[in-house]
Design a protein that fits this description.
Two copies of one chain form a homodimer. Chain A is α+β, with helices and mostly antiparallel strands. Chain A has twelve helices and four strands; from the N terminus they run αααβαβαββααααααα.
């Protein structure tokens, strides 16, 4: 069923929404209409893309503030953990990319209502987080050292974790990672796998997940979601 | 206010609860009464302690299955990601320690109802997760290499992240990390800081967080919570 997905558009965010427009909405929906959201990150997808896509799928208006790498040193000490992305909600900062992804996901109907399925969604988010962690230090390496480190990851967590996620996907019926419609776990998986398959990371062959039919179908399905495709075309491909 | 905290005991889990006992409970509360929970981990606190404490504070019955290190190789391939802890809910496995902590936390009234405060709780959980990550590889090191690596962490993430958490705690009024009562973020912080301050980790001085009054008060407050103190006394101190 696509109950949650078809429902996403209800959050159409109209700035200066009148009281009339707010009638018939739940308290949470009214809040989404009146809160302001500013997502601050570099002009890349990286750790902000899944949250941007959640806003887009939920049709929730937000300021997509992209900073130049040169402005980062001055901004860094003003952020909660010396890191971005940061999401400002009515001016109050929320850090940690997956905390903000889950928060926006709840507003965008991209987080399972059932507590156990919500936990399975969290499980996938943490697993994807772990899968990417050992890749980060390799971006500071060069030449043979980088090659060796990345090849070891192909033989380890980078592939094994996604294989485990494929198994979980199949156990949930093969359609979505948690629950019975698209969730933030699917968005996160889409962003991660699409990046790894891009051919843009030296020594990471774009074929590394070709043996995982469920994951590939999922990435295709998320990528052809109208709101996702539109966002990427208008805001990521051109900007990057 | 301690609304959520004082409410925790309502989940008294009675095995074989009769239909009569279930009257007046929400669907979620009835589920907690009839579901079975088995937490599988080594006979240490580690990544399972916060979840065990959440069960204890919520007065939710669970099987606390502790395996010997020698049994792990045989068990490993049967777990979702080749890792424990795993929480079996009616026999269905849930992996990733913070996914299970959040799940149990929601049942135990240890997770903020307000979505933004829930996100601040998630933010702290992710920050604590990050703070511990660079410590893990040092357990495979020895002698001078280990000393150097750990001293570098004292000058970096291990202290800076907890300093950032202290700041967030103060911004939230100084009592709790998120919302206005104890949450799973406080339990996680308690477990982490208590371990780092234990003096049991070579080259990590137990004084490393002495300059953070809010964190120390929080750890003391969580540690003297009746359910937490009782659980640690009866199930952790003696077993370990």
């Amino acid at each position: 069923s696509n109950e949650r997905t078809s429902d996403n558009a209800r959050h159409t965010n109209v700035s200066g929404g009148s009281a009339k427009q707010l009638i018939g909405m739940s308290e949470q929906e009214q809040k989404v209409q009146t809160q302001t959201f500013k997502l601050i990150y570099f002009n890349i997808g990286g750790r902000a893309l899944a949250t941007r896509l959640a806003f887009a799928v939920g049709n929730i208006k937000f300021t997509d503030e992209r900073i130049e790498f040169g402005s980062w040193p001055a901004l860094k000490p003003t952020t909660p953990f010396g890191c971005i992305p940061v999401l400002e909600v009515d001016g109050v900062p929320l850090a940690q990319s997956n905390a903000m992804l889950r928060y926006v996901g709840r507003m965008a109907n991209l987080y399972p209502e059932d507590p156990f399925q919500a936990a399975k969604c969290d499980e996938a988010l943490y697993a994807l987080y772990d899968a990417g962690a050992p890749l980060s230090p390799t971006f500071r390496m060069k030449g043979e050292e980088q090659k060796k480190a990345r090849e070891a990851l192909l033989d380890g967590p980078l592939v094994k974790t996604i294989e485990a996620i494929e198994k979980g996907l199949q156990a949930n019926g093969g359609e979505w990672l948690a629950g019975d419609s698209m969730s933030v776990a699917d968005l996160s998986c889409f962003c991660f796998v699409r990046w790894l398959q891009s051919g843009k990371i030296d020594h990471i062959p774009p074929t590394l997940y070709d043996h995982l039919p469920g994951i590939n179908a999922l990435v295709k399905k998320v990528g052809t979601n109208a709101a996702v495709a539109k966002w990427i075309d208008e805001h990521e491909t051109k900007k990057k």
